[in-house]
Design brief:
This protein is an alpha+beta fold and 244 residues long. Helices cover 64% and strands 14% of the residues.
Length: 244
């Protein structure tokens, strides 16, 4: 080469090794760039995996808490169900006791209730409810001031009704016992299942005589009262047999 000749410009084509080095450098830079992206992607996946792992742990913790709450709720439900069963049993026993007590009280009050109802329906001022034989008043309104012989004379009507099992009606004051202060009188049998259970005697109906219609109503009341008394009696016998 002539030292005096001008220098020629650099050309990679004239230097193959330099060209290869440049290509390798470019490939290396591309690989480094790709590796950087890959590293970033791996880090992102790692972060996402950690986030998912934490979510899984949180869900497991929540699931454990929910499971614990469910078990606690089930235990409370079991306790409440047991308590409800005990309360239902106690209520059943209480209801049976109240029913038995009601029947006992009803059996004692039936004569008084029947007498009161009959007096209200008819307007009678005094009355008796006797045993089936016509004696021994189970309920009584009035007649307190009468002498014993007058009371016995009135009981004659209930005894007659008990004997005949037919109503006895007297609307003429002159035919009634003197000194008893009676203006009229009606004695009606209380029967149930063909058996006499008692006699209802009413007197001093001030708004008129005792009528056949009133007697039929009173007989119907008597039938219901007689059935109730019989049911109460049978219930009492069952209770006594159960206790013994």
């Amino acid at each position: 080469m002539n030292p005096d000749s001008p220098a020629e410009p650099y050309s990679a084509a004239r230097f193959p090794s330099a060209q290869l080095a440049a290509g390798a450098l470019a490939s290396l830079e591309a690989l480094q760039h790709s590796a950087s992206h890959t590293r970033d992607a791996i880090l992102a996946l790692g972060n996402e995996n950690e986030r998912l792992r934490q979510q899984v742990e949180e869900l497991r913790s929540e699931n454990s808490q929910v499971k614990s709450h469910i078990e606690s709720a089930q235990e409370k439900i079991h306790i409440l169900e047991s308590r409800l069963e005990r309360e239902q049993s106690d209520n059943s026993q209480l209801q049976n006791h109240i029913r038995d007590l009601h029947l006992d009280l009803a059996a004692q009050d039936l004569p008084s209730l029947a007498l009161k109802m009959a007096m209200e329906l008819t307007g009678a001022e005094v009355g008796l409810f006797t045993e089936a034989d016509g004696d021994d008043a189970l309920a009584r309104v009035g007649f307190e001031d009468l002498q014993e012989f007058l009371i016995e004379a009135i009981f004659d009507y209930s005894r007659r009704t008990a004997h005949t099992a037919e109503p006895t009606v007297e609307n003429e004051a002159k035919n009634l016992p003197d000194g008893a202060g009676l203006v009229n009188l009606a004695a009606l049998p209380f029967a149930a299942k063909g058996q006499l259970r008692g006699v209802l005697l009413l007197a001093n109906k001030r708004n008129g005589p005792f009528t056949d219609a009133e007697c039929q109503i009173l007989l119907a009341i008597g039938q219901h009262a007689g059935l109730a008394m019989e049911n109460a009696r049978l219930h009492s016998k069952v209770q006594e047999a159960y206790v013994s």
